[in-house]
Amino acid sequence: MALSDVAVARTPLHALHVSLGARMVPFAGYEMPLQYPAGILTEHLHTRARAGLFDVSHMGQIRLRPRSGLVADAALALERLVPADIVSIAPGRQRYTLFTDPQGGILDDLMVANLGDHLLLVVNAACKQTDLLHLRAHLSDACTVEPLFERGLVALQGPGAEAALAALAPEAAAMSFMDVRPLDVAGVSCMVSRSGYTGEDGYELGIPQTDVVRVAEALLAQPGVLPIGLGARDSLRLEAGLCLYGTDLDAGTSPAEAALEWSIQKSRRIGGVRAGGFPGADRVLAELGSGAGRRRVGLLPEGRAPLRGGTRLFASEDFNAPSIGTVRSGAFGPTLNAPMAMAMVETGHSADGTRLVAELRGRPVPVRVAPLPFVTPGYKRNAKRTAA
Amino acid sequence: MADIRYTKEHEWVRLEDDGTTTIGITDHAQEALGDVVFIELPEPDRDLAEGESCAVVESVKAASDVFAPFAGKVLEVNEVLAEDSSLVNRDAEGEAWFFRMEPTDPEAFNGLMEEAEYTAYLETL
């Protein structure tokens, strides 16, 4: 591949990654750190044991400011595009949701925070330009849609994340999972959420472009904090049973197929106070009752060989019979110390404990449908009570 | 000094005194692959064609094929790798050999790259 032919963007932390010895790779139009000299396995285990700092500045931050000045109007407008209850997100809280298309497929997954007088969205890097157009096309009557794509975003994840951030911003300790607060971190005004995508406790920090390096260096200077690349980010999120857009989720996959029913609150379901009203609602809501024909599940293969995306699944070792599903994400889980996968399978084969057979390089590998997540999450759901 | 040659697929091949060969992946290969978590080795007695995929190295990043450097028969595989695949990251060009092979054509070994050629080849990548 001729990289010089492709416009590859850099995040504000590019030079820091290089100075830390990162192996840089193209990802979603950016040159990103795949790993540092410690390597993916060590970085993964370190994040679960101590704390890791991830550059996720390639993701898109978008501000929705209500023209009326009332954040509820921006929330109501956003509900035209997503199936979650946005209106009920309290100031200083955030929620996970999906952009759906008219067929009920998933266009992107995102976080929505209520910052009191506006909403702040964090969307996937590969989707951010189309998300921006989508928001402008459908919400411009009610909101100004402001891309903050130059802004930095870092994630501090792991059981040591609280101590590391609280050393710089003591208020961080009192935040609960999915709380969002503006905090002064190393003299920089950051927008901090207690969230992340590793299954660990931790934070994401939105940072003005010119100050990202200063904040990242201050966090890396804390005891136990190491820089972590995209390689470990992928194995961490898969152990946590979290979906990767473009792999586990796409426009051909509905929320029920993706087992994301929990992200659709009662108010938006049939009989709810603001039922439907988002693209593909008829299908999406019907599937909440009837179920979909296939479903995302966790898989534990026997042996040590990882099953990669695209691996076909069968009900038995008869590979001439129709395939009943396909692996979407597969890897070796360093904490699990075993291979793991997420797959889309026919609903009749989706119950926990169901035994299936994967076709790996022409040979059968027995696999078992297993509950997600593979590794118990460490989210701090009620930090105020424990921190008091 | 043992005679060791290299392939463009980043395998090393050592010619033993009895005319058989021992095959593994190079240090450059293990470095590029990252942490190895699983290795699939060929069945002993399997006949391999030149360039045939005969082993798979699974790292935390991806699966990579290992190819037969020339035609021949598999004599023995390194069972230690089934128990401890990370040996490849620690000693790729030593203890972490993959398999031993009897070449069909005794001259085939001489067609592979010498160390200086392989080093020069790496510079071009």
TrEMBL record, chain A:
Keyword Methyltransferase (UniProt): yes
Binding positions for substrate per the UniProt entry: 204
EC number of this enzyme: 2.1.2.10
InterPro entries given in the database record: GcvT, GcvT/YgfZ/DmdA, GcvT/YgfZ_C, GcvT_C, GCVT_N, TrmE/GcvT-like
GCVT N-terminal domain mapped to chain residues: 13-266
UniProt family annotation: Belongs to the GcvT family.
Protein's recorded name: aminomethyltransferase
Native species: Lichenicoccus roseus
Gene coding for it: gcvT
UniProtKB/TrEMBL annotation, chain B:
One BP annotation, GO: protein lipoylation
InterPro entries to which the protein is assigned, alphabetical: 2-oxoA_DH_lipoyl-BS, Biotin_lipoyl, GCV_H, GCV_H/Fam206, GCV_H_sub, Single_hybrid_motif
CC cofactor: (R)-lipoate
Presence of keyword Transcription: no
Single GO cellular component term: glycine cleavage complex
UniProt superkingdom: Bacteria
Cofactor note: Binds 1 lipoyl cofactor covalently.
Gene3D superfamilies recorded: 2.40.50.100
Keyword Nucleotide-binding: no
Domain Lipoyl-binding stretches: 20-102
SUPFAM superfamilies reported for this sequence: Single hybrid motif
Residues bearing the modification N6-lipoyllysine: 61
Record keywords, A-Z: Lipoyl
PANTHER family associated with the record: GLYCINE CLEAVAGE SYSTEM H PROTEIN, GLYCINE CLEAVAGE SYSTEM H PROTEIN-RELATED
Physiological role: The glycine cleavage system catalyzes the degradation of glycine. The H protein shuttles the methylamine group of glycine from the P protein to the T protein.
Subunit structure: The glycine cleavage system is composed of four proteins: P, T, L and H.
Family, as annotated: Belongs to the GcvH family.
Name this protein carries in UniProt: Glycine cleavage system H protein
